[in-house]
Design brief:
The complex is a heterodimer. Chain A is an alpha/beta fold. Chain A is built from nine helices and ten strands. Classes of the chains: A alpha/beta, B mainly alpha. Chains A and B meet through helix 1, strand 7 and helix 6 of A and helix 6, helix 8, helix 12 and helix 13 of B.
Chain lengths: 273, 273
């Protein structure tokens, strides 16, 4: 009886540890590139074919998922694998040898890390979109936020990104430009976490990107503020030099910077480069 | 007549040893890999920076508080589960142990809907003027939630193993239930209580997902060591690795203490039988 209990206990414990480990390691995986070279299609089509993996900043998830589908539809025989994560996570993954063919960063700093490391040709990156900050508040705006300065009021629970991540760096820039010093209740490590605190109503306001407010739909209300123009985030994209499908990688970059790509990005709230 | 000498033990099959070595390497190698990345020249400045010290101090304080809460709530839970018999007990036990197998983020979301501003209990707390969101209290709650099952599990197992013989004798000699609990039951399972508490402490110290979801991240208030490591990784991988090493060292010490307590538990059990 007792041995049975402890055996169950041991199983549970093992399961718990395994589960925790799995939960920890799940982020950033799932980037396997399936060998999608279909030999039958090689004979006739001189056009693009094969498979590439695009590493894109988390804020591009909606737009790049749509763009990859449209690219595949326009170029039968091609497969675009997508991997979304924070830009600095993606840089780490690429530096450590992850199989990427294209990198789309949410800021120029992270792109510079890869050009400095020689993994991307210094002349290759093209700016394809911009993004600015916007105030996100829960529906009905319970704290009555109307301006950037309102966020500094002591009774307002404001959540921002930590200065270490791009959205936090933009927040610091706006603070310095306006002379308004925020006293946030939390400095999150990603836009998603800021948005989560606002949608759940824990925070009265959060500073995220315009595109995040649009993507969140009815869950939050967006409040534009003119000072956001002080910190415009530029998104560069470039093929990885070592890509085995350089032609396809370049074609995808051209697609994103072309009219279809720009249209999809504009619909999502991104600014023109 | 069987020989007095014990039959020579055949020994562990070679293949078992080989697999065991592979398993051990799987656990140890990543730790070694991490140590090789530590920037030793900068190690002391990195772990003694203000944000690092704040994070370590906060982690130790909240983990200790959470452990105390685990003991306070967990001992009665273990006693009830081990010594009573009632309808639905098995279901209750499974539910109580649920945080063991639940991804921590899920725990964080559940806590948010309970203690959050718009949560089940949060609104009542708010009416009393107590705000839990974004406070150190929220960190302690998150840690207690995930660590409690470890204490209940190890203590309940020990209670079942020691049996009720001594308690029954004590009761026939006229001791009241509380006296039996205090003078007989708890001293018998003290080693298991200690090792259970140490395990809870370790789990609380490593807690990340629930804290991030439920409590937020602010230096000195809610940003514990795991959250600080996660954030530092964005800009300063050296600091992240150095802090990770600190966490590993603390964890190793904790495991050693738990093991020690477990050993003495074993001795005691053998001596009493």
């Amino acid at each position: 009886m007792t041995t049975r209990t402890s055996a169950i206990a041991a199983t549970l414990l093992t399961a718990a540890v395994a589960f925790t480990l799995a939960a920890c390691s799940s982020s950033g995986s799932g980037t396997e590139t399936p060998a999608a070279e279909t030999p039958s299609a090689t004979a006739t089509a001189p056009a693009l074919e094969g498979s590439i993996t695009v590493f894109a900043a988390a804020s591009l998830k909606g737009t790049f998922t749509e763009l990859a589908d449209e690219f595949e539809a326009a170029n039968p025989g091609t497969t675009i694998e997508l991997n979304f994560a924070g830009s600095s996570d993606l840089v780490t993954q690429i530096t450590e040898g992850a199989p990427a063919d294209v990198f789309a960063s949410a800021d120029e700093k992270n792109m510079a890390k890869l050009t400095d490391a020689g993994l991307i040709d210094a002349a290759a990156p093209v700016d394809f979109a911009t993004n600015v900050l916007e105030i996100a508040v829960p529906p009905t705006n319970p704290a009555g936020i109307a301006s950037f300065a309102d966020l500094a009021k002591p009774e307002v629970k404001t959540v921002i990104c930590a200065a270490q991540v791009p959205c936090g760096a933009a927040t610091v820039t706006v603070e310095q430009a306006t002379g308004v010093t925020l006293t946030p209740v939390s400095e999150e490590s990603s836009v998603t976490d800021v948005l989560g605190k606002v949608t759940s109503g824990e925070a009265d306001a959060g500073l995220v990107y315009v595109t995040d407010v649009i993507a969140a739909g009815d869950a939050v209300e967006g409040i534009e503020f003119p000072e956001s123009g002080e910190a415009v985030n530029t998104y560069p994209i470039a093929p990885i030099t070592a890509s085995k499908s350089a032609k396809l990688a370049q074609a995808f970059v051209d697609f994103v910077t072309g009219s279809v790509g720009q249209g999809v990005l504009a619909d999502a709230g991104f600014g023109k480069r | 007549m069987p020989s007095r000498r014990r039959p020579a033990y055949a020994g562990v099959p070679g293949w078992v040893v080989v697999v065991a070595v592979v398993g051990a390497a799987f656990v140890v190698l990543p730790l070694v890999a991490m140590v090789t990345r530590v920037n030793w020249a900068e190690f002391v400045p990195l772990i003694t920076s203000e944000s690092s010290v704040d994070a370590l101090w906060l982690s130790l304080r909240t983990s200790l508080t959470a452990t105390a809460l685990c003991v306070l709530l967990g001992v009665p839970m273990a006693v009830v589960l081990a010594r009573t018999d009632f309808w639905g007990q098995k279901i209750l036990r499974s539910l109580v142990l649920l945080p063991l197998v639940l991804p921590p983020v899920v725990g964080g979301i559940a806590l948010l809907y309970t203690f959050g501003r718009r949560g089940l209990l949060g609104q009542s707390f708010e009416a009393l003027g107590v705000t839990i969101a974004f406070s150190t209290t929220a960190v302690v709650l998150a840690q207690t939630f995930v660590a409690l099952p470890f204490l209940v599990l190890s203590l309940e197992g020990a209670l079942r193993t020691v049996g009720t013989r001594y308690e029954a004798v004590g009761a026939t000699l006229g001791a009241r239930p509380t006296t039996v609990l205090r003078r007989i039951t708890l001293p018998l399972v003290l080693p298991a209580l200690v090792s259970g508490a140490v395990l809870s402490f370790a789990r609380a110290l490593g807690e990340f997902g629930a804290t991030l979801t439920f409590a937020g991240s602010l230096q000195g208030v809610t940003r514990t060591l795991p959250l600080e490591i996660y954030l530092q990784r964005e800009t300063d991988p050296d600091a992240a690795v150095a802090l990770s090493l600190v966490l590993v060292v603390v964890a190793v010490i904790v495991v050693a203490v738990a093991h020690q307590a477990g050993e003495s538990n074993g001795f005691r059990r053998r001596a009493s039988s």
